[in-house]
Design a protein that fits this description.
Layout (H helix, E strand, L loop, with lengths): L1 E5 L8 H8 L7 H19 L6 E7 L5 E3 L5 E10 L5 E3 L5 E4 L5 E4 L15 E7 L3 E6 L4 E5 L9 E10 L9 E9 L2 E5 L14 E7 L12 H16 L16 H4 L11
Antiparallel strand pairs: 1-2, 2-8, 3-7, 4-5, 4-8, 6-7, 9-10, 9-14, 10-13, 11-12, 11-14, 12-13
Length: 274
């Protein structure tokens, strides 16, 4: 069983972007649109097991088998493995004693020559806390020329990021689908960026608008952004619910035609266990 213990701080789509897709100029229905948007995001996660914006999860197991399989992708990092010992106390496994293989079904296994400790024989005696998501929410500080990543693992100088935005524009002069490098670590999660590996820190002139995201190349073979297929499905699902609001009860299901484009959008993102 896997539970979310720290949800994303923002949706993968800003309401301005959703409203534009719906051709809705007024904001008076934003509360309703947000309900349908949240439902579509949850459904996409349920079907695929893919987390769009970084969140923290806790997977619960009854024992420590050869490998612990995590059922949410893409994996950002394993925060910790804990087990309930014979004295009914939670203990943390030394990270040096296990390895993590980030895949569609990420696995945590003990290192060769090292055995897992023996947990207490009861339900839920093992917990794995981990972060998953394609992107982190990013906040910019034009005064300090820094960006802050929320819900992401700590980065070091030289690591590569790719930025995106929903509903507005990235802080100037940052551009979407462009590679940037961590130029300096100001504090945990707060960085200065450079356009090249050895370049100077970028002078950020404004804070941008709407939602900003940052991702890393190679996270589950991703390209640092939320896949377009997932976002498109969420938009189309939100549109369907919003367009038929108030009439679905009295509308025969046979008269609501399934959008063939939407129908298969999630197929490439389904994991084998779902």
């Amino acid at each position: 069983m896997t539970n979310i213990i720290a949800p994303p701080v923002a949706y993968p789509l800003h309401l301005d972007a959703v409203r534009k897709h719906l051709r809705e100029d007024l904001t008076e229905n934003d509360d309703l649109i947000e309900i349908y948007l949240a439902k579509a995001i949850a459904e996409a996660f349920h079907v695929t097991g893919r987390q769009m914006v970084a969140a923290r999860f806790q997977a619960v197991f009854d024992c420590l088998p050869c490998e612990l399989v995590l059922d949410v992708a893409p994996l950002i990092q394993v925060v910790g493995v804990q087990y309930l010992d014979g004295n009914n106390q939670w203990q943390t496994v030394d990270p040096a004693n296990y390895v993590v293989k980030a895949e569609l079904q990420s696995r945590v296994t003990h290192k060769l020559g090292i055995q897992w400790p023996v947990p207490q024989g009861q339900i839920g005696a093992v917990q794995v806390t981990f972060d998953a998501g394609y992107v982190a929410v990013m906040e910019a500080d034009a005064v300090a020329d820094t960006v802050k990543l929320i819900g992401w693992k700590d980065l070091v100088v030289g690591e590569v990021l790719r930025l995106s935005n929903s509903g507005g524009a990235l802080p100037k002069p940052l551009k979407p689908q462009t590679t940037y490098y961590v130029q300096a670590v100001v504090s945990p999660g707060v960085y200065k960026l450079a356009a090249t590996l050895t370049g100077a820190a970028i002078d950020i002139t404004d804070n941008g608008a709407a939602y900003h995201y940052a991702g890393q190349l190679g996270i589950n073979d991703g390209d640092g952004v939320i896949p377009g297929g997932l976002l498109s499905w969420v938009l189309l699902e939100t549109e369907t619910a919003y367009s038929f609001r108030g009439s679905l009860i009295n509308t025969p299901a046979s008269t609501i035609n399934e959008n063939p484009f939407r129908k298969h959008l999630l197929d490439p993102y389904r994991t084998s266990y779902l």
